[in-house]
Amino acid sequence: MPRKGMRSIFYSTSPSPSRSKASPSTPGRSISEAAMARVVEQAEAMIMKWDAETSAYAKVTSLFYESKREAHDFIKCVNELQNAMHILVSEDSSSDTLVRAQRLMQMAMKRLQKEFYQILSTNRAHLDPESVSTRSSRLSARSSTSDYEDDGGPEDEIRTAGDSISEVELVSNNVMDDLKSIAECMISSGYGKECVEIYKIIRRSIVDEGIYRLGVEKLSSSKIHKMDWEIVEMKIKNWLEAIKISIKTLFTGERILCDHVFAVSDSIRESCFTEISKEGATLLFEFPRLLVSKSRRSPEMVFRTLAAYTAIADNWPEIESLFSFESFSAVRLQALTTLSKLGESVRTMLSEFESVIQKNSSKLPVPGGGLHPLTQEVMNYLSLLADYSGVLSDICGDSPPPVNSPSPEFYFEGSESDDTPMPAISVRLAWLILCLLCKLDGKAKQYKDVSLSYLFLANNLQHVVSKVRTSNLRYLLGDEWISKHEYKVRQFAANYERLGWGHVISSLPENPKAPISPEEAKDSFRKFNSEFEQAYRKQSSYIIPDPKLRDEVILSLARKLVSAYQEFYETNRVALATIRNVEMLIRFAPEDVGNNLSDLFDGTGTMNSGSVSVSSSSSSSSRRRHR
């Protein structure tokens, strides 16, 4: 029968009254049954050729690997057989031709089931998520710039890509399209369950293996609790990489593959992707919560916790889109629960860190009034925290610091120029710095020398200000906060100068240029020598680690001390020139004083005194500065 005649038989939608009333023996029905018998006969030739139970060739050969054209003919043949069966059922559900067709359909489905399994299992490399994702990107780019004819098949689409597709991508495309054609054929023939089961088993094993290879595994609470921090840190670090790969590649690739293969059915697509990915996704999002909540605390954990929080928060749009099916509601809930628990852990760790500051009980004063280890640890910690300011703003939005505090009122000066309230994270970090400063204020009292306690405060506050200025803390606390605390540094430094060097300055006459008797001049020189040597010897071990602050303190001392001494020196040295052993009386020229001051505050100061010639017209020291 011509093809046109066959098509009219298959797709006739308005049978004539005479045909609809025909009895089983009418000529019309006989013609239709004969046509269906020919379709079944043609299908039998193709199906039997590839029946593994009757053909040794079919038993060892893959239909889709051997000949793509014959594979497509096989699918077409099965589809036509299915159409014929529908017609036979409607006309005579007990006909021998229908029984024969059903037997052939079972054989065909068995063959396609085997082909589906072989394609999935032998092409894992070409169906890896990265290749699938790349294919999706290529097709998206092409579809945005060109249109395709409706009658163009998959091979036509691939051919049009030309050199833009690599050989690997080409194989991946072919494999995906083969799977799709088999799946559509089996589903339309009523064998979707068998097809789906094969797909789920193989692809789920790939997802589970991928998650495991990324270092995400099931861990018991007891095992986590026994882990050293280094192991926990390594696992969180691996997870941070794992979530990127899982979201961008592993699950995305599986979703694309599932959507493509089972495009014919939305419910099957959802069912497959859910069963394949749900357990792995749940484990992925639960993993960091378990590590953080069950492992032993360490100060460094807050940064890994923040990184984990950031990873989920930043990927949330993709998570929500990728796992959009209702069947994934538990996965989305797990991600949100982990996000909440991680935020809660961060808040707890910040409170614990505050407690660590307040409970610091070191009793030994830092030598030379230098930086206290607590200052360095806290500021390093806070400057790193500031790098997560955006995430911390979300986490700490509803947890302001305590309003009542026993801390000195000195540290509570706030901004008067701006009525805008500080963000919660800014308040939180400022509060932690305040706790540190109050603790340092108490530790300054451990020094017996009050001037050294002020130098200690100046050094440590200068370090605090410097860390704020050179980190993201600057943007959280503001320039006004920095200016106020820089002013406090200058106050501490001024108190140090007054208490540490005031007695040296006061050893000189109030008016250094005023004429005095030689005896009074000698007495003043002796006092100055004694006070300067005593102060220098005492403070030669003092240190100022910050170069800027060190230069400022030395310059300030030089302005007050060297200038006063030079005026006194120039006024009285000539009158004492005739005294025997005058160099024993006038031990320092003005530049000696300046050079000695310049050698201070590095912890290794050694006094330099000059050989004084009182007859010279200007400063007469032959000593030069030695560092």
Please provide a written account of the structure:
It is a single chain. This protein has 627 residues and is mainly alpha-helical. It contains 26 helices and no strands. The protein has helices at 3-10, 17-20, 27-49, 56-60, 63-66, 68-91, 96-122, 129-143, 154-161, 167-188, 192-213, 221-225, 229-261, 266-294, 301-322, 329-359, 373-385, 389-395, 424-444, 450-469, 473-477, 479-505, 518-539, 547-572, 582-585, 590-598.
Unreliable residue stretches = 1-28, 140-152, 157-164, 404-412, 611-627
Radius of gyration of CA atoms, rounded to a whole number: 44 Å
Class per helix and strand makeup: mainly alpha
Can you tell me the overall shape? Answer: rod-shaped
User: Approximately how much beta-strand content do the residues carry?
Assistant: under 5%
Question: What is the average of the pLDDT values?
Answer: 82
SSE succession = HHHHHHHHHHHHHHHHHHHHHHHHHH
Supply the number of helical segments.
26
| Estimated helix fraction | 55-70%
In total, how many beta strands? Answer: 0
Alpha carbon gap, first and last residue? 112 Å
The largest sheet, given as strand count, sense and whether it forms a barrel, is:
none
